[in-house]
Amino acid sequence: MSPSTLPPATGLKPAVPMLELLLRVRQDMDTRPVGPYRYIGMPDVDWVNCFKGGYRECLDVLGVDEGSDVLFGVWLRDVRLAWPGEGWEPAYLRECGGDQTRALRKYLDYVAEFRTLSSEDLSAISWRIPEDVQFATRAPQLMPTRAPQPTLDFLMEIRREIGDTEGRLGMFIGPITVRRMEGLIAGYRLCLGLVGARDEEYVRFERWLQDEKGVPTGQEWAQPFLSACGGDHEQAIRRLLGFAAEFRAA
Question: Does residue 144 lie in a domain region?
Fold first, then answer.
């Protein structure tokens, strides 16, 4: 299949900032005692962290500027001292006794706290890197300035970047698991959908995986590919990326 061309940036809707999206998840968790929750399904901190990565990658592709929200990670690490070197996901999960919902809620509560800070509050912080203060008063620019790229473009880029080197998938998802890769793809696709970009090529790709590659109807790729690869998560993901290239070449 030849690469799909999504519509140009004109005609798209303003992007939803990442932190705003996470606050919507938090609000849904406030109103319902148990999942699945809006956008994320059942709580899974590993999945959510990679979901964030895919969503932000799409925002970057679209040329969206999230304004002062870009300071959240620095604030969490250097001001609140709440982003350990091992990553917030394993640290919060351990602190919460393995409870995925509590661990995710802890992270989302920090998002909510950060979002209460005014530009004056952010400007008054002594940032470890002084240049970061310039972002404190930066207004977001949420209208896409560049044309969206299909999800398969993203997958093909990952395939090119990792080459044949074992472990390089970690550059994109950290610990290499199919669950984390699913989150990365889901975040990228949601971002496209929320700005109004119709990524129909990926739907055709999923149907092709069912028709040509034995993925059972109604299932995602992850578990069938993991079984086919004897439980090897990296090989299962490489199998997906290889099929993406085959689909594009057909």
Answer: no
User: What is the spatial distance between Cα 15 and Cα 27, in angstroms, rounded to a whole number?
Assistant: 19
Angle value at C-alpha 149, between 193 and 38, nearest 5 degrees: 25
The verdict on 70 and 114 lying in the same domain is yes
Instruction: State phi, psi for 127 to the nearest 5 degrees.
Output: -70, 145
And the tokens for 160?
């090119």
What tokens does 182 get? 């699913």
pTM confidence score: 0.94
Q: How far is residue 133 CA from its own chain's centroid?
A: 26
Query: CA–CA separation, 196 vs 49, rounded Å?
Result: 23
Residue 113 lies in domain: 18-49+64-135
Which tens digit of pLDDT belongs to each residue from 118-172?
999 999 999 999 899 999 999 999 999 999 999 999 999 999 999 999 999 999 9
Q: 77 vs 25, 47, 80, 130, 173, CA distance in Å?
A: 22, 20, 6, 15, 20
pLDDT in tens, 160-170: 999 999 999 99
Q: Model confidence at 1, in pLDDT bands (50, 70, 90)? A: very low
